[in-house]
Amino acid sequence: MGRVTERRRVVRIRNGVAGVRPDTLVAEEPLEIRLNGKPLAITMRTPGDDFALAVGFLVSEGVLGAASEVRAVTYCEGADEDGVNTYNVVNVQLAAGVPVPDITLERNVYTTSSCGLCGKASLDAVRTATRFPGAAAADPVRVPAELLGKLPDRLRAAQKVFDRTGGLHAAGLFSAQGELLDVREDVGRHNAVDKVVGRALQGGLLPLTGAVLLVSGRASFELAQKAVMAGIPVLAAVSAPSSLAVDLALESGLTLVGFLRGADMNVYAGEERITL
């Protein structure tokens, strides 16, 4: 598996004085995800938790809903010019009898660390049917606003690689009581969420009833969709949501919080779950 960080030379200028020093950067490498041996998607990601990333991506695509539906997840053999295995191709083999939606094999998906899925034919193609219909809307969980405001600091404290690079997004999974259940980092915010969701699937925890998903950046449509696909009732972001993310939250019963900064926040949908 590739390294999470790499060292590079940098010219550092401070108060008009230049000096040369090494700098620690977050690593970014391509990962090809295959389904039953067939190429499905390529994403630019930070190496680590590749198997969780792959199965989490398939949850978002509506392919997987339980760990029992996966027969095996393996690295495909591949080597660079020096003969070193690059570990940049992962194959997910489904268990016998698990259907493969046509949409996952009809398109080539390229994802980037910045925007996530690109090349979707239409908005309708993005609105993949969840394996847990109505889970977000029916979830009775309530979260105190005061507790919610403390979560960004808890997430930040758990970001180990960010402390060394300053260049990673994070996704944290919390209980309604504020317990940090899992945290993953990646150069792409959508990858960080897929890693969290994938680890939950591997642990037999889907749907994630009563959970709060906190992301370190903005809340895009894609992140809202990933939350709905995993049965998560509350999505919070430290930055702004997009208009489509709000629309999806209103349609699906997802509670969507943006600009979460201490005691201040904007609740764009599902405000009945946030108690004062």
List its traits:
16 strands, 25% helix, 34% strand, six-stranded mixed sheet, alpha/beta, flat, 276 residues
Topology:
Blueprint: E1 5-14, E2 17-26, E3 29-35, E4 38-45, H1 50-60, E5 70-75, E6 89-94, E7 109-112, E8 116-118, H2 123-126, H3 135-138, E9 143-144, H4 145-148, H5 151-157, H6 160-165, E10 169-175, E11 180-186, H7 189-202, E12 211-215, H8 221-229, E13 234-237, H9 243-252, E14 255-261, E15 264-269, E16 274-275
Parallel strand pairs: 3-6, 4-7, 9-16, 12-13, 13-14
Antiparallel strand pairs: 1-2, 3-4, 5-6, 7-8, 10-11, 10-12, 14-15
Helix pairs in contact: 1-7, 7-8, 8-9
What does this structure look like?
The termini are far apart. The chain has nine helices and 16 strands. The protein has 276 residues and is of the alpha/beta class. The protein is flat, with a radius of gyration of 19 Å. Strand 13, helix 9 and strand 14 form a beta-alpha-beta unit.
